[in-house]
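Technical annex, item 7. During the second reporting period the consortium partners agreed on a shared format for inverse folding records so that results from different sites could be compared directly. Each record opens with the tokenized structure and is followed by the designed sequence. A conforming record, contributed by the partner at site C, is shown below for reference.
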């Protein structure tokens, strides 16, 4: 998850986010993550990769990590 925070910081939209962050700050962080995902999907499509397939693989990887946690 540190990679994600670093990437969002580089992306320039991540506010300081902690467990006690306000709902508004959390919403901004969620919006930044959503925008990043959308941009990655556009990039994948431009590279000739099916974004839906990439999303499916990402979801499986996420679920496997959750199951192992």
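Designed sequence (site C submission):
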């Amino acid at each position: 998850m540190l990679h994600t925070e670093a990437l969002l910081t580089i992306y320039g939209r991540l506010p300081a986010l902690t467990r006690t962050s306000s709902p508004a700050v959390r919403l901004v962080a969620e919006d930044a993550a959503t925008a990043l995902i959308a941009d990655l999907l556009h990039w994948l499509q431009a590279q000739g990769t099916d974004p839906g397939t990439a999303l499916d693989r990402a979801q499986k990887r996420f679920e496997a990590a959750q199951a192992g946690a």
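The mean pLDDT is 82. The first helix runs from residue 2 to 11. All partners now use this format for quarterly exchanges.
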